[in-house]
Design goal:
The complex is a heterodimer. Chain A has no helices and eleven strands. In chain B, a hairpin with a 6-residue loop joins strand 4 and strand 5. Helices cover 0% and strands 52% of the residues of chain B. The chains are: A mainly beta, B mainly beta. The interface between A and B is medium-sized, with 23 and 21 residues.
Chain lengths: 107, 117
């Protein structure tokens, strides 16, 4: 199985900050990576797919990059509604796997 | 608009089975696969498996093999996930999600399954 390791697991930041979350895969997954945002009590929301493509309706302050084994989600200027937990997911091969999550909290 | 509406919360005894339904609307049901993902309280997301709504082919997580069955009913645009021999470790919110280009772009609201004696 492909393991995805996110770092950091916890991030404290302020509104307006630029933050980045890294997702490392245990083996190459080309660009078959997605990023999800999840708020408490809600279903995950797809933000980015194929590593860098913004899902329709997602603000442009979100961006993704990377390929192979290392990927990054960047939020250019944090807004209050961005404080949530973020997950990466690989769909390169079965079983599909998720990272352990990164909890983004307000400083 | 695409909508996935899941069945309501369930409380089950250890050893029992549960079936969660996921009714789709707003698109042609058998054009996109359905994945199932669960989330134990305070934990991360765990992929359970995927079913083709076109031909019924499935791919299950190894750890659930033998206990999980995913099916679809095209006439009602509904997907089902049955999990058997429940233990307390199966207490979680269960989500269905519709594929889009291989990614889970649309999600149900989640169904809480509690396993307790």
């Amino acid at each position: 199985d492909i393991q995805l390791t996110q770092s950091p697991s916890f991030l404290s930041a302020s509104v307006g900050d630029r933050v980045s979350i890294t997702c490392r895969a245990s083996q190459g997954i080309s660009s078959y990576l997605a990023w999800f945002q999840q708020k408490p009590g809600k279903a995950p929301k797809l933000l980015i797919y194929t590593a860098s493509t913004l899902q329709s309706g997602v603000p442009s302050r979100f961006s993704g990059s990377g390929s192979g084994t290392e990927f990054t989600l960047t939020i250019s200027s944090l807004q209050p509604e961005d404080f949530a937990t973020y997950y990466c997911q690989q769909v390169n091969s079965y079983p599909i796997t998720f990272g352990q999550g990164t909890r983004l909290e307000i400083k | 608009q695409v909508q996935l509406v899941q069945s309501g919360a369930e409380v089950k005894m250890p050893g029992a089975s549960v079936t969660v339904s996921c009714k789709a609307s707003g698109y042609t049901f058998n054009s996109y696969g359905i994945s199932w993902v669960r989330q134990a309280p305070g934990q991360g997301l765990e992929w359970m498996g995927w079913i083709s709504t076109h031909n019924g082919n499935t791919n299950y997580a190894q750890k659930l093999q033998g206990r999980v069955t995913m099916t679809t009913e095209t006439s009602t645009s509904t997907a089902y996930m049955e999990l058997r021999s429940l233990t307390s470790d199966d207490t979680a919110v269960y989500y269905c999600a519709r594929d889009w280009s291989g990614y889970s772009a649309y999600w149900g609201q989640g169904t809480l399954v509690t396993v307790s004696s």
